[in-house]
Amino acid sequence: MPKMFYFDSKTTVVFGQDAVQGLGSEAAKLGARKALIATDKGIVRAGLLEKAIRSLTAAGLEVAVFDEVEPNPKDKMILEGARAARDHQADLIVGLGGGSPMDAAKAIAIMSTNDGPLESYIEILDAWPNTPLPVMCVPTTAGTGAEVSRAAMINLSDQKLKRALFGASIQPVVAVVDPLLTLGLPQHLTAYTGIDALCHAFEAYIATLANPISDALAEKAIRLAADNLRAVYSHGDDLEARSNMLLASTLAVIACSSAGLGIVHSLAQTLGGYYDVPHGRSIAVCFPYGIGYNASAEPEKCAEVSRMMGTDTSGMSDEAAANSVLDALRNLLADLDVHDDLRSLGFRESDLPELADICVEDGSTPTNPRPIDADGFAELFRSALD
Ligand SMILES: [Fe+2]
């Protein structure tokens, strides 16, 4: 019998080809009249911003654009975005892009109605006194799943820390999820974001708050990623594979929003904040080490993931079947031409004690299936250097 659990997902998901054409009507349903779109220059260059503007204006909304979002959103940039939202008297923030623009949209929504400081809201559930503006999200990558999450990862630039703003009030009201928007994603970003999606599903599957609903979502997401990630990497115009990866990404984050994440994210977020490296790259480096640490805590589920990734575990001991998932992961990374290591992210051994301490404080650590302390994180960093 499952132990007691809690599951909710408040985001309405509108999924499918050309779904972005319905962005405006979904915004109008919320009663919005003035939208600020938070995005980045790459999205503008790719012509995706135009699609969003066209739909919103056709539905009668006045639209302003803040296209200054950069990878790993910084607190100072968030305040600029919030100023743009106030100047426009926005009543809706639309995040358009990968994880950074969507996370930025949530943070801008908070800072449009609150004075801050932003830093005081970090890692405290719904810490802001005033209700943020409503957020809608339109992902253009299949990985972050920020379109359905209640977290926004922000870099506190003065402290080299990546930390979460967290609360139901910043969870997007609507996610408009259109696989056509992911067709032009460059090959290396397709790989990194897809690995992040698989990691969300895997970590949710073995996290301490995993439950029957999150397990069902995580299993589906793992199968979709295992069956489609190589295909989207080698054939970026394969719309069916793109659609399946986008679905995997969304399902995975609905799962981990309920079940939690684990130390792959603790390690990767720490490195991302400290060295300002893209999230997917740091996930790719940390993925095998974090799962290697956890395999003994959830052997049956790790063996199941290995089978979902194509391993024939018949005849293996339980331990070997669990550990076989590491080969499955490493083979996948190799097939995606991902060869990053700790040093290529900027890692210096002299930073190790500080990094290990930051990992302990990371919001993903408490739901890891196997307890770990600073010494344990330091050991993992050292093993990744060998
Ligand atoms: Fe992630």
Compact overview of the structure:
The protein has 386 residues and is α/β, with parallel strands linked by helices.
Any descriptors?
Dehydroquinate synthase-like, alpha domain, 8 strands, binds fe (ii) ion, 14 helices, Rossmann fold, single chain, 6-stranded parallel beta sheet, alpha/beta, 386 residues
List the helices and strands and how they pair.
Blueprint (H helix, E strand, L loop, with lengths): L11 E4 L7 H7 L4 E5 L2 H5 L2 H11 L3 E5 L8 H14 L3 E6 L1 H13 L23 E5 L11 E6 L4 E6 L7 E4 L9 H20 L5 H23 L4 H21 L3 H13 L3 H16 L4 H10 L9 H18 L16 H10 L12 H12 L1
Parallel strand pairs: 1-8, 2-3, 2-4, 4-5, 5-8
Antiparallel strand pairs: 6-7
The site of fe (ii) ion has 6 residues, from helix 6 and helix 10.
Description:
By secondary structure, the chain is an alpha/beta fold. It has 2 domains: 12-182, Rossmann fold (3-Layer(aba) Sandwich); 187-385, Dehydroquinate synthase-like - alpha domain (Dehydroquinate synthase-like, alpha domain, Up-down Bundle), CATH 1.20.1090. The protein has helices spanning 23-29, 41-45, 48-58, 75-88, 99-111, 187-206, 212-234, 239-259, 263-275, 279-294, 299-308, 318-335, 352-361, 374-385, and strands at 12-15, 34-38, 62-66, 92-97, 135-139, 151-156, 161-166, 174-177. The strands form 2 sheets. The chain has a 6-stranded parallel beta sheet with strand order 1-8-5-4-2-3, with helices on both faces. Strand 6 and strand 7 (161-166) form a beta hairpin. The protein is globular. Bound molecules: fe (ii) ion. The site of fe (ii) ion has 6 residues, from helix 6 and helix 10.
